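Example 343, ligand magnesium ion.
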Amino acid sequence: MEPTQVARTPEDEFLERAGEISERFLGNIESVVHGKREEIKLVLAALMCGGHVLFEDVPGTAKTVLARAIAGSIDDATTTRIQCTPDLQPTDVTGLSVFNQKDRDFEFHPGPIFANVVLVDEINRAMPKTQSALLEAMAEQQVTVDGHTRELDDPFLLLATENPIEYEGTFPLPEAQLDRFLLKTQLGYPGAEDEVQILVEQRYGHPLGSLRPVLDVDEVRVLRRAVQQIYVDPLLQRWIVDLVRATREHESIAIGASVRGSLALERASRAWALLDGRDFVLPDDVERLFQPVLIHRVTFRPSFLAEARTIGWTAAIDAFQRACLAVAPRPRPEDGASFARAT
Ligand SMILES: Nc1ncnc2c1ncn2[C@@H]1O[C@H](COP(=O)(O)OP(=O)(O)O)[C@@H](O)[C@H]1O
Ligand SMILES: [Mg+2]
Protein backbone atom coordinates (compact mmCIF):
# COMPACT_ATOMS: atom_id res chain seq x y z
CA MET A 1 0.00 0.00 0.00
CA GLU A 2 1.10 3.54 -0.71
CA PRO A 3 2.06 5.51 2.39
CA THR A 4 -0.62 8.07 3.17
CA GLN A 5 0.42 11.63 2.58
CA VAL A 6 -1.24 14.84 3.60
CA ALA A 7 -2.34 16.42 0.33
CA ARG A 8 -0.48 19.63 -0.43
CA THR A 9 -2.59 22.25 -2.12
CA PRO A 10 -1.22 24.68 -4.71
CA GLU A 11 -1.68 27.31 -2.03
CA ASP A 12 0.64 25.43 0.36
CA GLU A 13 3.23 25.22 -2.39
CA PHE A 14 2.89 28.89 -3.19
CA LEU A 15 3.37 29.92 0.43
CA GLU A 16 6.30 27.56 0.78
CA ARG A 17 7.93 29.17 -2.24
CA ALA A 18 7.33 32.62 -0.74
CA GLY A 19 8.91 31.50 2.53
CA GLU A 20 11.96 30.29 0.63
CA ILE A 21 12.28 33.59 -1.28
CA SER A 22 12.04 35.65 1.90
CA GLU A 23 14.68 33.48 3.59
CA ARG A 24 17.05 34.00 0.64
CA PHE A 25 16.38 37.76 0.63
CA LEU A 26 16.97 38.11 4.37
CA GLY A 27 20.14 36.01 4.27
CA ASN A 28 21.63 38.11 1.49
CA ILE A 29 21.05 41.37 3.36
CA GLU A 30 22.43 39.87 6.55
CA SER A 31 25.69 39.21 4.73
CA VAL A 32 26.33 42.98 4.81
CA VAL A 33 24.30 44.26 7.78
CA HIS A 34 25.27 42.32 10.88
CA GLY A 35 23.41 41.58 14.08
CA LYS A 36 20.21 43.27 12.93
CA ARG A 37 18.00 40.38 11.84
CA GLU A 38 14.89 41.65 13.64
CA GLU A 39 15.25 45.14 12.21
CA ILE A 40 15.89 43.85 8.68
CA LYS A 41 12.78 41.67 9.03
CA LEU A 42 10.76 44.75 9.92
CA VAL A 43 11.97 46.55 6.80
CA LEU A 44 11.27 43.52 4.60
CA ALA A 45 7.82 43.22 6.19
CA ALA A 46 7.16 46.80 5.09
CA LEU A 47 8.34 46.07 1.56
CA MET A 48 6.13 42.98 1.46
CA CYS A 49 3.01 44.94 2.35
CA GLY A 50 3.78 47.97 0.20
CA GLY A 51 4.56 50.12 3.26
CA HIS A 52 7.39 52.46 4.17
CA VAL A 53 9.73 52.79 7.13
CA LEU A 54 10.83 55.63 9.37
CA PHE A 55 14.13 55.31 11.22
CA GLU A 56 14.86 57.47 14.22
CA ASP A 57 18.52 56.79 14.62
CA VAL A 58 21.98 58.12 15.20
CA PRO A 59 24.32 58.35 12.18
CA GLY A 60 26.55 55.44 11.19
CA THR A 61 24.18 52.56 11.91
CA ALA A 62 24.07 51.06 8.40
CA LYS A 63 20.87 52.71 7.17
CA THR A 64 22.44 53.64 3.84
CA VAL A 65 24.05 50.23 3.60
CA LEU A 66 20.70 48.55 4.32
CA ALA A 67 18.90 50.54 1.61
CA ARG A 68 21.61 49.65 -0.89
CA ALA A 69 21.63 46.01 0.19
CA ILE A 70 17.87 45.70 -0.35
CA ALA A 71 18.09 47.20 -3.84
CA GLY A 72 21.24 45.20 -4.56
CA SER A 73 19.47 41.96 -3.66
CA ILE A 74 16.78 42.47 -6.29
CA ASP A 75 17.77 42.03 -9.92
CA ASP A 76 17.75 45.38 -11.77
CA ALA A 77 16.39 47.33 -8.81
CA THR A 78 17.51 50.92 -8.46
CA THR A 79 18.27 52.97 -5.38
CA THR A 80 18.58 56.70 -4.77
CA ARG A 81 19.28 58.88 -1.79
CA ILE A 82 17.73 62.25 -1.01
CA GLN A 83 19.47 64.44 1.54
CA CYS A 84 16.88 66.79 3.00
CA THR A 85 17.78 70.41 3.71
CA PRO A 86 15.52 73.37 4.46
CA ASP A 87 15.82 74.61 0.85
CA LEU A 88 15.05 71.29 -0.87
CA GLN A 89 12.14 71.94 -3.25
CA PRO A 90 9.35 69.46 -4.04
CA THR A 91 10.57 69.33 -7.65
CA ASP A 92 14.03 68.32 -6.40
CA VAL A 93 12.27 65.15 -5.26
CA THR A 94 9.68 64.56 -7.97
CA GLY A 95 11.54 65.94 -10.98
CA LEU A 96 10.20 68.53 -13.39
CA SER A 97 9.41 69.26 -16.99
CA VAL A 98 12.08 71.17 -18.87
CA PHE A 99 11.58 72.87 -22.23
CA ASN A 100 13.66 71.20 -24.90
CA GLN A 101 14.66 73.82 -27.51
CA LYS A 102 15.44 71.29 -30.20
CA ASP A 103 12.13 69.41 -30.05
CA ARG A 104 10.18 72.55 -29.02
CA ASP A 105 8.45 70.53 -26.37
CA PHE A 106 8.52 69.85 -22.63
CA GLU A 107 10.45 66.85 -21.49
CA PHE A 108 10.12 65.28 -18.05
CA HIS A 109 13.29 64.88 -16.00
CA PRO A 110 12.42 62.37 -13.26
CA GLY A 111 13.63 63.17 -9.75
CA PRO A 112 15.19 60.76 -7.25
CA ILE A 113 11.77 59.54 -6.06
CA PHE A 114 11.72 57.39 -9.21
CA ALA A 115 13.61 54.39 -7.89
CA ASN A 116 12.78 51.07 -6.24
CA VAL A 117 14.42 51.87 -2.91
CA VAL A 118 14.56 55.53 -1.92
CA LEU A 119 16.49 56.59 1.15
CA VAL A 120 15.38 59.99 2.45
CA ASP A 121 17.92 61.25 4.93
CA GLU A 122 16.86 63.64 7.69
CA ILE A 123 13.28 64.03 6.49
CA ASN A 124 12.55 66.39 9.37
CA ARG A 125 14.94 68.96 7.91
CA ALA A 126 12.85 69.33 4.74
CA MET A 127 10.30 72.13 4.60
CA PRO A 128 6.65 71.10 4.97
CA LYS A 129 5.79 71.36 1.28
CA THR A 130 8.65 69.04 0.36
CA GLN A 131 7.61 66.63 3.11
CA SER A 132 4.10 66.68 1.64
CA ALA A 133 5.43 65.76 -1.78
CA LEU A 134 7.25 62.79 -0.25
CA LEU A 135 4.24 61.70 1.74
CA GLU A 136 1.95 61.95 -1.28
CA ALA A 137 4.36 59.70 -3.14
CA MET A 138 4.26 57.18 -0.29
CA ALA A 139 0.52 57.15 0.06
CA GLU A 140 -0.42 57.20 -3.62
CA GLN A 141 2.53 55.39 -5.25
CA GLN A 142 2.47 58.28 -7.74
CA VAL A 143 3.43 61.94 -8.02
CA THR A 144 1.76 64.82 -9.79
CA VAL A 145 4.07 67.25 -11.57
CA ASP A 146 2.79 70.09 -13.78
CA GLY A 147 -0.66 68.55 -13.75
CA HIS A 148 0.59 65.16 -14.96
CA THR A 149 0.28 62.15 -12.72
CA ARG A 150 3.16 59.74 -12.95
CA GLU A 151 3.35 56.25 -11.51
CA LEU A 152 6.32 55.46 -9.31
CA ASP A 153 8.48 52.37 -9.73
CA ASP A 154 7.25 48.99 -8.58
CA PRO A 155 8.37 47.86 -6.04
CA PHE A 156 8.70 51.20 -4.28
CA LEU A 157 10.12 51.26 -0.77
CA LEU A 158 10.86 54.53 0.99
CA LEU A 159 13.15 54.52 4.01
CA ALA A 160 13.27 57.85 5.78
CA THR A 161 15.60 58.82 8.56
CA GLU A 162 14.72 61.29 11.24
CA ASN A 163 17.05 62.91 13.71
CA PRO A 164 16.14 62.43 17.33
CA ILE A 165 13.56 65.13 18.01
CA GLU A 166 15.63 67.47 20.15
CA TYR A 167 17.82 68.40 17.17
CA GLU A 168 17.51 72.04 16.18
CA GLY A 169 16.45 73.46 12.85
CA THR A 170 13.96 70.74 12.06
CA PHE A 171 10.34 70.64 11.00
CA PRO A 172 8.84 67.76 12.94
CA LEU A 173 6.58 65.65 10.74
CA PRO A 174 2.94 66.40 11.49
CA GLU A 175 1.21 63.57 13.37
CA ALA A 176 -1.28 63.10 10.56
CA GLN A 177 1.57 62.37 8.18
CA LEU A 178 3.58 60.15 10.46
CA ASP A 179 0.87 57.57 10.17
CA ARG A 180 1.72 57.16 6.48
CA PHE A 181 4.73 55.15 7.61
CA LEU A 182 3.84 51.51 8.10
CA LEU A 183 6.34 51.29 10.90
CA LYS A 184 9.06 53.09 12.76
CA THR A 185 12.19 51.45 14.07
CA GLN A 186 15.88 51.98 14.63
CA LEU A 187 18.97 50.02 13.72
CA GLY A 188 21.19 51.11 16.57
CA TYR A 189 24.80 50.13 17.14
CA PRO A 190 25.94 46.56 16.49
CA GLY A 191 27.26 44.39 19.32
CA ALA A 192 31.03 44.30 19.97
CA GLU A 193 31.56 40.97 18.18
CA ASP A 194 29.68 42.20 15.13
CA GLU A 195 31.63 45.45 15.15
CA VAL A 196 34.90 43.51 15.10
CA GLN A 197 33.63 41.48 12.15
CA ILE A 198 32.76 44.76 10.39
CA LEU A 199 36.36 45.98 10.81
CA VAL A 200 37.79 42.73 9.51
CA GLU A 201 35.59 42.46 6.46
CA GLN A 202 36.00 46.10 5.39
CA ARG A 203 39.78 45.92 5.25
CA TYR A 204 39.96 45.55 1.48
CA GLY A 205 36.70 47.23 0.54
CA HIS A 206 33.04 47.19 1.47
CA PRO A 207 31.11 43.89 1.37
CA LEU A 208 28.38 45.72 -0.60
CA GLY A 209 30.81 45.58 -3.51
CA SER A 210 30.42 41.81 -3.76
CA LEU A 211 26.71 41.62 -2.98
CA ARG A 212 24.77 39.90 -5.76
CA PRO A 213 21.05 39.91 -6.58
CA VAL A 214 19.25 36.83 -5.24
CA LEU A 215 15.69 37.52 -6.39
CA ASP A 216 13.87 39.32 -9.15
CA VAL A 217 10.99 41.75 -9.23
CA ASP A 218 8.50 38.96 -9.95
CA GLU A 219 9.60 37.23 -6.78
CA VAL A 220 8.94 40.45 -4.85
CA ARG A 221 5.40 40.26 -6.24
CA VAL A 222 5.16 36.64 -5.07
CA LEU A 223 6.03 37.85 -1.57
CA ARG A 224 3.35 40.52 -1.70
CA ARG A 225 0.68 38.11 -2.90
CA ALA A 226 1.71 35.59 -0.28
CA VAL A 227 1.27 38.17 2.50
CA GLN A 228 -2.30 38.67 1.28
CA GLN A 229 -2.94 34.95 1.70
CA ILE A 230 -1.63 34.54 5.23
CA TYR A 231 -4.45 33.46 7.52
CA VAL A 232 -5.61 35.66 10.41
CA ASP A 233 -8.06 34.02 12.77
CA PRO A 234 -11.21 36.13 13.33
CA LEU A 235 -10.41 36.16 17.07
CA LEU A 236 -7.04 37.76 16.28
CA GLN A 237 -8.59 40.24 13.90
CA ARG A 238 -10.96 41.35 16.61
CA TRP A 239 -8.11 41.52 19.11
CA ILE A 240 -6.07 43.75 16.80
CA VAL A 241 -9.00 46.15 16.58
CA ASP A 242 -9.50 46.05 20.36
CA LEU A 243 -5.81 46.78 20.95
CA VAL A 244 -5.86 49.76 18.61
CA ARG A 245 -9.05 51.00 20.24
CA ALA A 246 -7.35 50.69 23.62
CA THR A 247 -4.74 53.23 22.46
CA ARG A 248 -7.59 55.71 21.90
CA GLU A 249 -8.92 55.36 25.42
CA HIS A 250 -5.71 55.34 27.42
CA GLU A 251 -5.33 58.24 29.88
CA SER A 252 -1.84 59.15 28.58
CA ILE A 253 -3.06 59.62 25.05
CA ALA A 254 -4.30 62.80 23.40
CA ILE A 255 -4.99 61.12 20.04
CA GLY A 256 -4.94 57.36 19.58
CA ALA A 257 -4.11 55.32 16.49
CA SER A 258 -6.57 55.54 13.60
CA VAL A 259 -8.07 52.81 11.47
CA ARG A 260 -4.85 53.02 9.47
CA GLY A 261 -3.21 51.70 12.63
CA SER A 262 -5.46 48.62 12.68
CA LEU A 263 -4.89 48.00 8.99
CA ALA A 264 -1.15 48.35 9.43
CA LEU A 265 -0.99 46.06 12.46
CA GLU A 266 -2.93 43.32 10.71
CA ARG A 267 -0.91 43.56 7.48
CA ALA A 268 2.44 43.76 9.19
CA SER A 269 1.53 40.74 11.35
CA ARG A 270 0.79 38.72 8.22
CA ALA A 271 4.15 39.68 6.71
CA TRP A 272 5.88 38.83 9.99
CA ALA A 273 4.26 35.39 10.04
CA LEU A 274 5.49 34.75 6.49
CA LEU A 275 9.01 35.84 7.41
CA ASP A 276 8.78 33.31 10.21
CA GLY A 277 7.79 30.55 7.78
CA ARG A 278 4.16 30.29 8.91
CA ASP A 279 0.98 30.64 6.87
CA PHE A 280 -1.01 31.98 9.83
CA VAL A 281 -0.64 34.79 12.36
CA LEU A 282 0.00 34.12 16.05
CA PRO A 283 -0.71 36.49 18.96
CA ASP A 284 3.08 36.84 19.39
CA ASP A 285 3.35 38.46 15.96
CA VAL A 286 0.82 41.10 16.93
CA GLU A 287 2.50 41.82 20.26
CA ARG A 288 5.92 41.98 18.63
CA LEU A 289 4.68 44.57 16.15
CA PHE A 290 2.63 46.68 18.57
CA GLN A 291 5.42 49.21 19.19
CA PRO A 292 6.98 49.57 15.72
CA VAL A 293 3.54 49.84 14.10
CA LEU A 294 1.57 51.88 16.64
CA ILE A 295 3.78 54.11 18.79
CA HIS A 296 4.49 56.70 16.07
CA ARG A 297 0.76 56.93 15.33
CA VAL A 298 -0.34 58.10 18.77
CA THR A 299 0.04 61.51 20.37
CA PHE A 300 1.00 61.27 24.01
CA ARG A 301 -0.09 63.84 26.57
CA PRO A 302 2.60 66.06 28.14
CA SER A 303 2.18 64.16 31.44
CA PHE A 304 3.27 60.93 29.69
CA LEU A 305 6.26 62.65 28.10
CA ALA A 306 7.30 64.04 31.48
CA GLU A 307 7.06 60.55 32.98
CA ALA A 308 9.05 59.15 30.05
CA ARG A 309 11.84 61.64 30.76
CA THR A 310 12.06 60.28 34.29
CA ILE A 311 11.78 56.53 33.77
CA GLY A 312 13.13 56.43 30.19
CA TRP A 313 11.28 56.15 26.88
CA THR A 314 11.56 52.36 26.60
CA ALA A 315 10.13 51.75 30.06
CA ALA A 316 7.34 54.26 29.41
CA ILE A 317 6.18 52.69 26.14
CA ASP A 318 6.51 49.17 27.58
CA ALA A 319 4.16 50.27 30.35
CA PHE A 320 1.82 51.80 27.78
CA GLN A 321 1.75 48.53 25.82
CA ARG A 322 1.03 46.55 29.02
CA ALA A 323 -1.82 48.91 29.83
CA CYS A 324 -3.36 48.38 26.38
CA LEU A 325 -2.96 44.61 26.77
CA ALA A 326 -4.71 44.77 30.12
CA VAL A 327 -7.70 46.41 28.43
CA ALA A 328 -7.53 44.07 25.42
CA PRO A 329 -6.03 40.78 26.63
CA ARG A 330 -4.64 38.39 24.05
CA PRO A 331 -7.02 35.63 23.00
CA ARG A 332 -6.05 32.24 24.34
CA PRO A 333 -6.17 28.89 22.60
CA GLU A 334 -8.61 27.70 25.31
CA ASP A 335 -11.05 30.28 23.94
CA GLY A 336 -11.35 27.81 21.09
CA ALA A 337 -8.76 29.12 18.66
CA SER A 338 -5.67 27.32 17.44
CA PHE A 339 -5.01 30.31 15.14
CA ALA A 340 -3.97 27.99 12.31
CA ARG A 341 -6.02 27.76 9.16
CA ALA A 342 -8.66 25.07 9.51
CA THR A 343 -7.87 22.19 7.15
N1 LIG B 1 25.18 46.52 11.88
C1 LIG B 1 26.09 46.79 10.95
N2 LIG B 1 26.51 45.82 10.08
C2 LIG B 1 27.42 46.07 9.11
N3 LIG B 1 28.01 47.26 8.94
C3 LIG B 1 27.65 48.27 9.77
C4 LIG B 1 26.68 48.09 10.81
N4 LIG B 1 26.52 49.28 11.45
C5 LIG B 1 27.34 50.14 10.85
N5 LIG B 1 28.04 49.56 9.84
C6 LIG B 1 29.04 50.16 8.94
O1 LIG B 1 29.19 51.52 9.36
C7 LIG B 1 29.39 52.37 8.21
C8 LIG B 1 28.36 53.47 8.18
O2 LIG B 1 27.11 52.96 7.71
P1 LIG B 1 26.06 53.85 6.91
O3 LIG B 1 25.07 52.92 6.27
O4 LIG B 1 26.75 54.81 6.02
O5 LIG B 1 25.37 54.64 8.13
P2 LIG B 1 24.08 55.57 8.17
O6 LIG B 1 23.51 55.66 6.78
O7 LIG B 1 23.18 54.88 9.15
O8 LIG B 1 24.57 56.87 8.70
C9 LIG B 1 29.33 51.44 7.00
O9 LIG B 1 30.63 51.07 6.65
C10 LIG B 1 28.57 50.23 7.51
O10 LIG B 1 28.91 49.06 6.79
MG1 LIG C 1 23.50 57.38 5.65
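Summary: The pocket of magnesium ion (ligand 2) is lined by residues 63-64, 121 (CB under 6 Å).
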